[in-house]
Amino acid sequence: MTRLITERQEQVKYIGVSYTRGYPQAQIRTNGQMIYLGLFAAPKLAAEAYDEAAKKYHGTKAKLNFTDRLITVRQEQIYRLCNPDFYNLKGKYAAMLLGISSVTVCNELKKIKKKCPSLFPLYKPMSVALQKSYRYEKWMDSKVICKF
């Protein structure tokens, strides 16, 4: 009984890892299809295989099991575009540039602020800085995105 509980706990521990006949297996969903990545000797190996596939299929939007970053690449892009110390764009223009909705930009900024409050100093609130932001210009598509 304790072995089953331990296996279930490990299954929840990693994204994309489940168990078949007592062995951890990795799989990923992309474009509505489930892609089988294989059976592994340890759950950590299955999670690493999932991370590689997630980077391949989902790019910067991938949710990973192992990362040395506090925030994702997409969150860093949003932060830099909206931050007055970098590009100082309004949220809706940053959304246009990245091809996402302005609600997503707002939600990602909230997540960043929760994980890394030091990026949002008290003396310079982001909401005040966003009022003096620049407008989206067509030339920003190639110039700004290539810097990431």
Number of helices: 7
Rg for CA atoms: 20 Å
What share of the residues does DSSP label as strand, in percent? Answer: 5-15%
How far is the first residue's CA from the last residue's CA? 49 Å
Tell me the series of helices and strands, N- to C-terminal.
HEEEHHHHHH
Please indicate the count of domains. 2
Mean pLDDT: 78
Side by side, the strands of the main sheet go 1-2-3
Tertiary shape: elongated
Helix content: 40-55%
From the helix content, strand content and strand pairing, which structural class follows? alpha+beta
What's the total number of strands?
3
The low-confidence runs, each spanning 5 or more residues with pLDDT under 50, are: none
The biggest beta sheet, please? Answer: 3 strands, antiparallel
What does this structure look like?
- The protein is of the alpha+beta class and 148 residues long.
- The chain has a three-stranded antiparallel sheet with strand order 1-2-3.
- Helices cover 49% and strands 13% of the residues.
- It folds into two domains: 2-58, GCC-box Binding Domain, CATH 3.30.730; 73-145, no CATH class.
- The chain contains seven helices and three strands.
- Helix 4 crosses helix 5.
- It starts with a helix and ends with a helix.
Key descriptive features of the protein:
alpha+beta; GCC-box Binding Domain; 2 domains; 3 strands; elongated
Q: Topology of this protein?
A:
Blueprint: H1 2-13, E1 17-20, E2 23-30, E3 33-39, H2 43-58, H3 73-82, H4 91-98, H5 102-115, H6 126-131, H7 140-145
Antiparallel strand pairs: 1-2, 2-3
Helix pairs in contact: 4-5
